Structures are given as C-alpha cells and as structure tokens.
# Entry
Amino acid sequence: MLRIVVLVSGGGTNLQAIIDSISNGKITNTKLCGVISNKKDAYALLRAEKAGVPGVSVSKKDYASGEQFHEALLAAIDSFSPDLVVLAGFLVILPKQLVEKYEGRIINIHPSLIPSFCGDGFYGLHVHEAVLARGVKVTGATVHFVDSGTDTGSILLQKAVSVQPGDTPEVLQRRVMEEAEWNILPAAIDGIANGRFKKDANGNYYMEEK
Ligand code: GRF
# Structure
C-alpha cells in the first residue's frame, strides 16, 4: 500500500481528483495519509476534512525564521511516514533538506508541457498568460519528479491540450485542469503505487499499461 501525503496551497482541485480517484478505483493500492497546506485558509483543507483525511497547515508566518518553517514542514511530512510526497499546487520552494531526504519520492503537477513555460515565475495563471502571449496552439500538463531545480526533474507523464481562439488565461487554465491535470496526476500515482513506471533505453520513464 503506497502511503502518500499531498501538499497544497490553494483550491485543491488536483487533491480532489486524487480523493475521487481513490474512491472510484482509478487509483489502487494507495492510502492518502494526510494533506499539508502552507495556507491556513486553503479550500483544499476543507476538501481533505470532507474526505476524512487529516489536514495540517504549516504557515511561514507562524515561525521566527525560514529555517524553523522548513523544519516544521519537514516534521509535518515525516509525521505521516509517506512513501510518496505529492505537490498539488504547492507554492513553496521546497527546502534542500526535504528534497534530499525524499529524493526520488516527490512528484509535482505542472500546468504546461515541460520544458515549455516552466521554471522560476511560471506558476498558476502566469503559465497560461505566457502560453497565450506566445501564441502556441498546444499546451498541456506534466507530472514530474522533483529534484533540486525548478520543474527540472524527470518527466513521468504528460497530456496535451489544445489552445482555442480567444481563450482567456482562466478558460485555458480550466481546460488544462479538466483535460490533463486531473487525469495524469491520479494516473501517475496509480502507476507508482502499482510499479508500472519503467525506464527505457534512453533512461526516460514510461508507464506500462494496466
Ligand atoms: C494547478 O493549476 C496546478 O497545475 C498548479 O497549481 C494549480 C493548483 O490548483 N501546480 P489546485 O489547487 O489543484 O486547484
């Protein structure tokens, strides 16, 4: 049974997709042990509560220093003894000690087709604003392992989404969530939980079919 903890900062629609996928069997062999938010008022914490999942908030302003905040965040994660840490809209730069301790066991959902529109400053609506400003016709989402960089870890899954004429950033964000994020993040968790990710001759991950 894969023990997961999900880190959130906002609305939690990706968290909800995970909760629903565990409930309807799209994700198997997985226990959602806890949800950790850096924002006390994150709606994601309400989603966790409704699902009967322990929710914890670790807010930077409650600590005298960044170092103490990082220690508290790590302690909160450790308290759930997770096998996998899932970043689902978590807007905090992970402390080095966390990335090192959970190396190879942290995944993130990014709302573009990495390596496009990612890296410092590319989060939330900024990603979709940049997509529309550039005029690309296809965007999408990526699930990747987290390493010491920003959106630079090995790619696990991607799903393409069309950009439509006249899209606003908000409309495009919603389409990318509905058509890509809410599918590939649960799929990646289920793939990890059931050992279906392998590496090919190029050293790139691929997921075997069920
Ligand atoms: C999503 O767009 C995700 O791709 C990005 O942050 C947003 C989180 O949305 N990492 P939600 O909190 O899951 O609704």
